[in-house]
């Protein structure tokens, strides 16, 4: 069986398995000996392809007068659908020297849970960050300084303290007012902050082949797929860097099982898995090209390097050949190099911080996010454009489940009653705030996946900002106008 996926829509983990409908489609194609197209409508997508599992918790926590956390005692629940677990990290990142947690999975008559960008982390982040806000007020500390005081020790993959200070300075955190905007009138503003972490490491096998033809064409074949994250661009950039060529000179070919084994797009592992194999394949192909070119230049292959579109002697660019002339030495059969993922060229785990500023109308309950600052460690930045795009997408995705997305279920049947674009709401262009992205480049760490971490902390940062604006803690998402008005009514009562 051969699978071809030249282009795929957003997967976000929910497309890692074929599901019953995918298996039926494949069986029909086998028996019909013809391609079969599968398409699900909106209701079927919500029912059958998985949903982010819910999370709820009841927490007691202790903090000393000096602001150090002392204890955490939590009871949590999660609904992952029919027979599926729904775990999430709790408490999230911050250090509680004494901790206890009891968790129960609640099985309900709905489709099973699926990964949906950083499984469990947005839930754990939201619950923990709300707690941190309230504890900071209890000891009368600035929320940023309170967080810094209770973070794990800093490491290359855990630089939250540094990023919190950087973000606070850039965001204008010193202009933040205490909890509850005292400004007269119905419009209240507030600032919030939250942190994130995620894995994003590479794994094998992830095979790649780099082929160079006598006409100078470079083709890189990898069995991976592109979910709109820019995998093709990533492959072209890595190969081009290795061969001393512009990225436009590389022709990536992906999404075909004929190209060898590659990992599923999940866990933010694609970039960290594919980049090393492409790098190794390109270097091996370049070594084969040097073997062809060296006799023509009268040197050993090891004396040659590739840069600026030429193959030339080290420290003597004038003694060499253009890429086109060098490739003429190949002959009729293309040369190739194979590569597979190996440790050392990619890293694991990342850290990030986000700040949010909101406006809340306490008469209507409408929340408007004005701006977000996202600081994210990326390890080695391979393609700045696509890395920034991932952060923008993560922030907007998290903004959606902070303010809009709400799966409403019938209590008796478990049927979703709003599986449509009219009542299952998403942000429109006017709802998207100004988003400033700051990528932290750490080349020494190798490639780290960045698809999921930026989506973790936005909802928590936005909710902290709403709390700062209205003076009371919202305790569930999404932050619909009805929930904001209910929260304010409870405070007044």
Explain this structure:
This protein is an alpha+beta fold and 493 residues long. The protein has two domains: 56-200 and 347-492, Aldehyde oxidase/xanthine dehydrogenase, molybdopterin binding domain (Aldehyde Oxidoreductase, domain 4, 2-Layer Sandwich), CATH 3.30.365.10; 207-340, Aldehyde oxidase/xanthine dehydrogenase, molybdopterin binding domain (Aldehyde Oxidoreductase, domain 4), CATH 3.30.365. The chain is 30% helix and 21% strand. The protein contains eleven helices and 14 strands. It has helices spanning 19-32, 42-48, 121-138, 143-149, 160-171, 231-243, 270-297, 323-327, 384-403, 458-470, 481-492; strands at 56-63, 69-78, 98-105, 187-198, 207-212, 218-222, 250-254, 304-307, 310-313, 316-322, 335-340, 350-361, 367-377, 434-440. The chain has a four-stranded mixed β-sheet with strand order 4-12-13-14, with helices on both faces. Strands 7-6-5-11 form a four-stranded mixed β-sheet. Helix 6 (231-243) packs parallel to helix 7 (270-297). The chain is globular, with a radius of gyration of 26 Å. The termini are far apart. The model has no long low-confidence stretch (mean pLDDT 94).
> CATH homologous superfamily of the largest domain, by name?
Aldehyde oxidase/xanthine dehydrogenase, molybdopterin binding domain
Number of helices: 11
Which bin fits the share of residues in helices?
25-40%
Strand content: 15-25%
Number of strands: 14
Task: Give the C-alpha Rg.
Answer: 26 Å
Query: Which regions have little confidence, pLDDT < 50, spanning 5+ residues?
Result: none
Order of helices and strands: HHEEEHHHEEEHEHEEEHEEEHEHH
How far do the termini sit from each other?
A: 65 Å
Kindly report the average pLDDT value: 94
CATH topology of the largest domain: Aldehyde Oxidoreductase, domain 4
User: Which class do the helix and strand fractions yield?
Assistant: alpha+beta
Look at the structure and give the CATH class of the largest domain.
Alpha Beta
The CATH architecture of the largest domain comes to 2-Layer Sandwich
Q: How are the strands of the largest sheet arranged?
A: 4-12-13-14
Estimate the global geometry from the Cα principal axes: globular
**Count of all domains:** 2
Q: What characterizes the major β-sheet?
A: 4 strands, mixed
């Amino acid at each position: 069986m051969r699978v071809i996926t030249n282009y795929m829509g957003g997967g976000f983990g929910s497309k890692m398995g074929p599901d019953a409908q995918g298996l039926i489609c494949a069986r029909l194609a086998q028996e019909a000996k013809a391609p079969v197209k599968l398409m699900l409508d909106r209701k079927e997508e919500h029912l059958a392809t998985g949903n982010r599992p819910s999370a709820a918790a009841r927490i007691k926590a202790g903090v000393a007068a000096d602001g150090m956390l002392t204890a955490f005692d939590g009871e949590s629940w999660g609904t992952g659908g029919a027979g599926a677990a729904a775990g999430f990290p709790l408490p999230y990142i911050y250090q509680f020297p004494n901790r206890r947690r009891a968790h129960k999975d609640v099985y309900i008559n709905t489709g099973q849970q699926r990964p949906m960008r950083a499984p469990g982390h947005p839930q754990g982040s939201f619950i923990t960050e709300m707690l941190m806000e309230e504890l900071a007020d209890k000891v009368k500390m600035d929320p940023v300084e309170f967080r810094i005081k209770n973070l794990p020790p800093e490491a290359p993959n855990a630089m939250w303290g540094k990023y919190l200070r950087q973000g606070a300075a850039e965001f204008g955190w010193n202009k933040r007012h205490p909890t509850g905007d005292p400004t007269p009138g119905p419009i209240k503003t507030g600032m919030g902050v939250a942190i994130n972490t995620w894995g994003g490491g590479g794994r094998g096998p992830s095979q790649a082949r780099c082929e160079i033809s006598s006409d100078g064409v470079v083709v890189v074949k990898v069995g991976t797929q592109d979910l709109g994250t820019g995998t093709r661009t990533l492959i072209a950039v890595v190969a081009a860097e290795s061969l001393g060529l512009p990225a436009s000179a590389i022709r990536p070919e992906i999404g075909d099982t004929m190209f060898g084994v590659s990992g599923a797009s999940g866990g933010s592992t694609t970039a960290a898995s594919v980049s090393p194999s492409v790098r190794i394949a390109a270097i091996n192909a370049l070594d084969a090209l040097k073997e062809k070119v060296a006799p023509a230049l009268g040197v050993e292959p090891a004396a040659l390097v590739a840069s600026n579109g030429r193959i030339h002697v080290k420290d003597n660019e004038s003694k060499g050949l253009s890429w086109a002339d060098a490739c003429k030495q190949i002959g009729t059969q293309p040369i190739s190099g194979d590569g597979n993922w190996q440790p050392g060229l990619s890293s694991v785990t990342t850290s990030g911080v986000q700040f949010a500023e909101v406006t809340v109308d306490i008469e209507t309950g409408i929340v408007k996010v004005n701006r977000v600052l996202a600081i994210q460690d990326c390890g080695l930045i391979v393609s700045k454009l696509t890395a920034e795009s991932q952060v923008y997408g993560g922030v907007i995705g998290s903004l959606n489940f902070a303010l809009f997305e709400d799966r409403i279920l019938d209590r008796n049947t478990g049927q979703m009653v709003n599986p449509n674009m009219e009542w299952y709401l998403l942000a429109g262009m006017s709802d998207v705030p100004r988003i400033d992205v700051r990528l932290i480049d750490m080349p020494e760490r190798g490639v780290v996946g960045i698809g999921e971490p930026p989506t973790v902390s936005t909802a928590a940062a936005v909710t902290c900002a709403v709390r700062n604006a209205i003076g009371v803690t919202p305790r569930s998402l999404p932050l619909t106008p009805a929930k904001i008005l209910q929260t304010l009514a409870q405070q007044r009562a």
